[in-house]
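Re: the 340-residue chain
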Amino acid sequence: TEDFKDLIPAGMGAKLNYLRKVGNNATHNPKGVTKDQAELALQNLHSFMDFVAYCYGTDYTETAFDKSLLEAGPEAIPVVVKPPVSEEIDFQTLLDENFPKREKLTAKRVAQIKQGYIVKHMDMTEAQTRKAYIDVMLQDAGWRRGPNWVDEYPINEMPNKLGKGAAEHVLLGDDGKPLAVIEAKRTSVNVENGRQQAVLYANFLEKKFHQRPVIFMTNGYETRIWSDKFYPERQVSGIYSKRDLEKEFNKMRDRAPLKGVRISDEISNRYYQKEAIQTVCDAFDERNRRKALLVMATGSGKTRTVISLADVLIRHGWVKNLLFLADRNALVTQAKRAFH
């Protein structure tokens, strides 16, 4: 949740997200997870528990992850099975009892954080990053190494002495054409450092297949997507699935230009409403913007304007699903009636 994200330092969210993905793959992926992935998951868990100890523990001492403990044989620990509690737990009473403790612990965490806590990242090579983090992201998105997931894809026409190179990962559609190219950097390097390299890969693939792939850049902790012919790059939670990438390509291929669109007078017939709609359309189509803001006075027909804009975008193949948000129930009800 957003509340939890506010509690943890920058960089910790990626570690916990990796734990989630490895857990999903261990449970649902027939191939399970590799030893290296399981080991990295433990390292990330150790990092999180170190943060918890820093915030709430007494006499905190920084400890490093001891990899040698994994090689030691497990000790036999007797397991005591307690009988289930028959009486029903009153969770509200439990929360009320713990509230004073919560306030005290929160104050302690805030005081500790002010002293500064730095998340420790493992400095991995690009090869290690690919194997540990990116493979997990791809598996979590449903990709399987083989015809659609190619590692070290050979790239020609590179600006080096040999004129050759290799893209870390190329994701292909069922027709064999590239859907995405992934540029990986080591965990300690900013993902933006791989931008120019990724563009060269995309240029070669577009020339070869007559289809420009989407660009992903990642260092394991941060992942960015870039449809460089359509939209500026932005941060995303992970690599897209094949289905989602195919939907993106279909949308780009099938959508019609928004220049001089026909705006329905039955929905919005005021000149300034039409001007606002066309301005937003121009921003999306000609300037490759992903968002727009309209500021309109009370009574100027904001609801009808946005309905008319939605009508234009749907008819021209730019959107399929719409989420309408308002800060009052009355406005939602009003919009629902207007949409019908």
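The chain has a mean pLDDT of 85.
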